[in-house]
Write a structure and sequence with these properties.
Blueprint lengths: L1 H12 L4 H6 L10 H21 L5 H8 L3 H9 L22 H8 L7 E7 L2 H13 L8 H16 L4 E2 L6 E6 L4 E6 L2 E9 L4 E2 L9 E2 H4 L1 H7 L3 E6 L7 E15 L11 E2 L3 E8 L2 H11 L3 E10 L5 H4 L8 E6 L12 E15 L2 E9 L4 H6 L5 E2 L2 H5 L3 E11 L1
Parallel strand pairs: 1-2, 1-3, 6-7, 9-17
Antiparallel strand pairs: 3-4, 5-9, 5-11, 8-9, 10-11, 12-15, 12-17, 13-14, 13-16, 14-15
Bound molecules: zinc ion.
Zinc ion (ZN) binds next to α2.
Length: 411
């Protein structure tokens, strides 16, 4: 049998423990642990060699090699007067015999963290990896499993036994148990909680995250209660776009993800927040890709704005109706003066789908603009000294000032 020949070939060159031998054939014989596979192979090699030895074949050298890591063979050899010494495994040096013992330390490190899913990640001394690589390369092994994989799998299984109800999750575990086999240290890496919700901003003196000028509160501050519920040490927010601090966010609201770093728990009941400045309504847990998608989507979302605009010169309703010419128009904007220092001279092209105006008094009108996300709406209204074209100010031939701006809908 090819497996036995190959196994004997390997054992002639290297003493390997049951696990390290069995691992080279890990893809053969489903539902066997590597040490069971390795032991079975050694037993069969032992039976074959002993019967050949008894029929007079010269296999003593092979028996001595096998005996280095196989007790029954040592026993057999002693009955025929040959003393063979036990040797340490060439690859792991004995580490795999009871690697499960690290699960106890890991369970200890996880105490106090309320999690559901985990993964084990280990780092091994370089020489172990090099020796494994040497064996795999020399014998062209294509049926094996890596030692790291076996260790992570076995400690993971032992942790499952010790921590009933938890699950192993490769892609997005709540926590990663890190075991450093060089130092023996076990640590826990806590992935952040990502809670998606939508927010409304009812105040014109509240910004998303930064405090400046007349801003009296931030959404970030208001969402600290989420961090406290999860027992985290820090929180940040990822919103699908942003309105100006003095613009209200009304209607259907805007998606935002609260990222709680180093949480003490991964599931909690988060009540909605409603105060005079903001409303936050939690929706559910998301992952990094979904956060990216929310941010990306904001660039192409359609938004509906309402603005209250002051005109320097009095306007008639008939004049004001000219703004409808701006429906279904492409607007070209150079980076507004107010943020110019940050990113100078960038050109942005956005669509205005629909625009309606209603005269409130000769100098004041209300404007509804349905446009592509990313349009600088204030600049689209007052023209920004010609940096945005076409603009409402240009069409009306009037100097305009935006008194109020609200986002009514994010479609
Ligand atoms: Zn080994």
């Amino acid at each position: 049998m090819e497996v036995l020949d190959k196994a004997l070939e390997i054992l002639r060159a290297y003493p390997l423990c049951d696990s390290c031998l069995g691992r080279q054939f890990a893809q053969l014989g489903f539902a066997l642990e590597n040490w069971e596979r390795g032991r079975a192979i050694k037993t069969l090699v032992h039976m074959k060699l002993v019967s050949e030895y008894r029929s007079g074949a010269d296999v003593l050298n092979d028996l001595v090699k096998l005996a280095k890591t196989h007790q029954p063979t040592r026993r057999f050899l002693s009955t025929v007067g040959v003393k063979a010494e036990e040797e340490k495994c060439y690859i792991c040096g004995g580490l795999l015999a009871d690697v499960e013992k690290y699960a106890e330390k890991a369970a200890e490190a996880l105490r106090g963290v309320e999690f559901e899913t985990f993964e084990v990640g280990s780092s091994l001394p370089r020489d172990i990896l090099e020796r494994e690589g040497e064996v795999v390369k020399r014998f062209l092994i294509t049926t094996g499993e890596s030692i790291k994989h076996e260790i992570n799998r076995r400690i993971g299984r032992e942790l499952l036994r010790r921590l009933p109800g938890k699950k192993v999750e490769k892609l997005r575990p709540n926590v990663v148990v890190k075991i450093d086999f060089t130092t023996g240290d076990v640590s826990v890496l806590k992935n952040p909680v990502l809670l998606e919700g939508i927010y409304l901003k009812l105040s014109r003196r509240t910004s998303q995250a930064k405090k400046f000028g007349g801003v009296k509160a931030t959404l970030l501050e208001k969402l600290q209660y989420v961090r406290d519920i999860f027992g985290g040490v820090e929180h940040v927010i990822h919103a699908g776009g942003r309105e100006d601090a003095d613009a209200r966010m009304l209607g259907t609201g805007r998606p935002v993800v609260v990222e709680v770093k180093q949480p003490a728990r991964y599931r909690a009941d988060v009540p909605p927040l409603v105060d005079s400045d903001v409303v936050f309504k939690p929706i559910g847990y998301v992952n990094r890709e979904e956060v990216r998608r929310i941010k990306e989507k904001a660039k192409t979302d359609i938004k509906l704005y309402r603005a209250l605009v002051l005109s320097e010169r009095p306007l008639t309703a008939e004049e004001l109706s000219k703004v409808s010419e701006l429906s279904r128009r492409t607007v070209v904007q150079f980076t507004p003066r107010r943020i110019k220092r940050l990113s100078p001279k960038k050109k942005r092209v956005r669509m205005v789908y629909d625009i309606h105006a209603r005269l409130v008094s000769p100098h004041v009108f209300e404007l509804y603009v349905r446009c592509q996300g990313g349009l600088y709406v204030k600049e689209f209204i007052h023209g920004d000294g010609g940096r945005t074209t076409p603009s409402v100010a240009e069409i009306l031939n009037a100097q305009l000032d935006v008194l109020e701006l609200d986002v009514l809908a994010v479609e």
